[in-house]
Write a structure and sequence with these properties.
Elements lengths: L1 H7 L2 H20 L6 H7 L4 H6 L9 H29 L2 H6 L5 E2 L2 H13 L3 E5 L2 E6 L6 H21 L2 E6 L5 E3 L5 E10 L5 E10 L9 E4 L4 E3 L2 E18 L5 E6 L3 E4 L5 E8 L1 E4 L5 E4 L10 E8 L2 E7 L4 E4 L2 E18 L2 H23 L3 E5 L3 E5 L4 H10 L6
Antiparallel strand pairs: 1-21, 2-3, 3-20, 4-19, 5-6, 6-7, 7-8, 9-10, 10-11, 10-19, 12-13, 13-16, 14-15, 16-17, 18-19, 20-21
Helix pairs in contact: 2-5, 5-8, 8-9
Length: about 400
């Protein structure tokens, strides 16, 4: 049992956990997360079964990733307790031990006075034990390792809270339109494309966030695995879709309305005569005799979109196919079928500002801990009427410094 406990608090185990967490994070970055099963089957045809079996499609929600985080917190907690115990143990009685050291370097009376003034100028704390003076500096340096371990633990804990506790919603938004959140935040989507000019799949949006207090972000590029953060909001390019676009003109009044259609919709002025929009197909094949075969699945943008609608007149439903640019007139309404519109599905995550502040504080504490560990080493100088000795965990630097400074006063 003791061996298990020692391994759980060991640096080797901590490094192993960090490596495994890093590998999981790389997998979660390379493989898009949270897509439909069919998307993985189509995109990763050779090994989509392995991805789904190992939950690499939802790495950060998997049991093993959460278990790794818990074990890392346990390891860091044990390491922190061990470090603070060592700090307390080392600090207990260190002044008495330093006072009992024999002089390592003997100085002239003038040298002793100059060393006393030198240590005072360096703002060393002075303590007298009998005929001996103890000057100490950077006593808090012993806590550097403990602070570093504690800050890593806090970073993991606050990072996990930031990962698992935010509110998350998925919203579709047409280009040129905005999403309004409950607190008044506006998320404007200027444009979206599925593929770039060369036909390579791109899934890119340009978004701008306006907070309730009026602060507005720059126009930001949003891509898969490249989220955008502003204020308490974090946006992810999550899904995409293609909407049918139909312009309806009233031939009597001349008025027009534009409709973006993503589901079955009935377009009519009187509720009796009009068209029933069924769906939009990405492609089709027309044989020599003129028969059309509809293609239901494609990857990326729709190469040859075609509308399937039903014309409703006098209670009769007439199935009809229409291409972009075609027009249908039903009674006093003219329906013009436009090029489809691609739109993004955005995952919107709201992270508490307090958690963000705590994460910043944890990182700041980590930097402070590392600085204290490497640049604030604790040291004690024992001084009496004949000379001095240097004590501490790593006294070499102070020994060299005093040796060079007071070499001419050595006896």
């Amino acid at each position: 049992m003791k061996k298990v406990f020692n391994y759980l608090r060991s640096m080797r185990f901590g490094i192993l956990l960090l490596v495994l967490i890093a590998l999981c994070s790389v997998a979660g970055t390379v493989i898009p997360q949270g897509r439909a099963v069919a998307w993985y089957a189509q995109t990763y045809r050779s090994f989509h079964g392995v991805i789904l079996l190992l939950r690499l499609n939802r790495v950060f929600e998997s049991w093993y990733f959460i278990a790794l985080l818990v074990l890392l917190c346990l390891n860091l907690s044990l390491c922190s307790l061990l470090r603070i115990r060592k700090v307390v143990s080392a600090a207990r009685g260190e002044t008495e031990r330093a006072a009992g050291l024999p002089d390592a370097v003997r100085l002239t009376p003038e040298g002793v006075e100059r060393l006393r003034a030198y240590l005072t100028d360096r703002r060393c704390r002075r303590e007298r034990i009998g005929e001996v003076e103890i000057y100490r500096k950077h006593s808090f340096g012993r806590c550097g390792s403990f602070i570093t371990h504690l800050s890593i633990l806090l970073t993991v804990v606050f990072g996990a809270l930031a990962l698992y506790t935010p509110t998350v919603v998925d919203r579709d938004c047409m280009p040129g339109e905005s999403i309004f959140m409950e607190d008044g935040t506006e998320i404007h989507v200027r444009d979206f494309r599925i593929a770039d000019e060369t036909g390579r799949l791109d899934y890119q949006s340009h978004v701008q966030v306006t907070l309730p207090d009026g602060r507005r972000s720059e126009l930001a590029e949003l891509k898969v695995n490249h989220p955008f953060s502003f204020g308490p909001w974090k946006l992810f390019q999550q899904t995409f879709g293609t909407a049918g676009s139909v312009t309806v003109t009233n031939l009597e009044t001349g008025g027009t309305d534009d409709f973006l259609l993503t589901e079955q919709t009935y377009l009519s002025a009187d509720g009796v005569t009009g068209i029933l929009y069924d769906t939009l197909y990405p492609d089709y094949i027309r044989d020599p005799s003129g028969n059309v075969t509809l293609i239901t699945i494609t990857e990326g943008s729709y190469p040859n979109p075609i509308y399937q609608v039903q014309v409703i007149s006098d209670g009769v439903f007439t199935p009809t196919l229409a291409l972009p640019g075609d027009e249908l007139t039903v009674m006093n309404l003219r329906f013009t079928f436009n090029a489809p519109v691609e739109y993004p599905g955005i995952r919107i995550k709201h992270v508490s500002p307090l958690l963000n502040a705590l994460l910043v504080a944890a990182f700041t504490l980590m930097i402070a801990g590392l600085y204290i560990t490497f640049f604030c080493e604790p040291v004690l100088v024992k001084l009496d009427s004949e000379g001095y000795a240097v004590a501490g965990p790593k006294p070499e630097h102070m020994r060299v410094e005093l040796g060079e400074e007071f070499r001419e006063f050595e006896v």
